[in-house]
Amino acid sequence: MIAFRKMNGLGNDFVVVDARHHAVDISADTIRALGDRENGVGFDQFILIEPAAEPADATMRIFNPDGGEVGACGNAARCVAALLLDERAMPEVLIASAGGPMRGWREADGRIAIDMGEPRFAGPAIPLASEAGDSWCVRFPEPELASYGAAACVNVGNPHAVFFVPDVGVVPLTDIGPKFENHRFFPERANISFVTVHGPDRVEARVWERGAGATLACGTAACAIVSVGHRAGILGERVEVVLPGGPLAIALTAGRIVMVGPYMLDWTGAITRDGFVRDPLPTSV
C-alpha cells in the first residue's frame, strides 16, 4: 500500500504521497483512475514529494487528473510547505519543482506564504506559438473567442492566459475554457482565467485549469492575474484574488510573486492494488 494524505487549499484538492524514503512508481492510468471523483479518490492534482539536491528540502512533482505532469501548483505548494515546516524546526523551506524553486514559510496567523518566483512574459517562455505574435497580449481570430478580448499571457511556473471581463459570473466556463486551453496558440496548452476587477487591490476570478477543468481555486492563476494586471497598470502590488473557494493574498515584491493562503489536511488513506482505502494507518512526512 502507498500511504497518502488528502489535502486542499481553498477547496483545490490533492492526493499527496511522500516518496522521499521509498520511491513510488505510479502510472498515468492509475492516476487517472484515482482522480475519478465517482469511482476513485477524486482530486485536482496528484502530488509526489521526492528527495531533492541541496539546498532544496524536497522536490514536488505535480500530475493532473488526466495523468499529465505539470510544472507548478501554488495551492499544493502551500500544503507541501506546511508538511515540511511541521516536520522541521526551521523558519522556512525550499521546494524544488519543474516550474522552479519555491520558498515557503508560515505567517503569524498560520497561513502559508510561498515565494513563487518571477513572472515570465516573453512568448517563448510562456510558451506561445509563433503565429500568436511576439506580444504577451494575444488576440484570437475566431469570432467566438475574439468576443472576450485580448488574453494577457504569462508563465508563473506554468502557462496562463488571463481575460478581464465585466462579470465573471456570466462566463460559460465549461464551454469556453477548453477552447482556449487547447487553442493552437498554446503549444503546451494553458490555464485560462476570467477576471472582474473590483478595484486595484481586489479582483474576482474563475479558472479553467489545464488538464483539470474548473477548480475552486488555483494558486498559480492568482499569481498570473496579479502579474499581468500590474504590468497592464490595472492592479497594484498587493491584491486580494477572490476565487470560488475563497481569497488568496498576492504581493509583488522586487519583481517576485508572494502568495499567502490557507491549507487543510482532510483525511489519510492508502492506494492499494484494487483502488484505495481510507484511514488504514497513521502517516508521517
From TrEMBL:
Annotated site (Could be important to modulate the pK values of the two catalytic cysteine residues): H160, E209
Short name of any one Pfam family annotated for the protein: DAP_epimerase
Catalytic activities: (2S,6S)-2,6-diaminopimelate = meso-2,6-diaminopimelate
Domain of life according to the entry: Bacteria
Assigned EC number: 5.1.1.7
Binding site for substrate: N12, Q45, N64, G74, N75, N158, N191, E209, R210, G219, T220
Record function comment: Catalyzes the stereoinversion of LL-2,6-diaminopimelate (L,L-DAP) to meso-diaminopimelate (meso-DAP), a precursor of L-lysine and an essential component of the bacterial peptidoglycan.
PANTHER family linked: DIAMINOPIMELATE EPIMERASE, DIAMINOPIMELATE EPIMERASE, CHLOROPLASTIC
Protein's recorded name: Diaminopimelate epimerase
Species in which this protein is naturally found: Acuticoccus mangrovi
The encoding gene: dapF
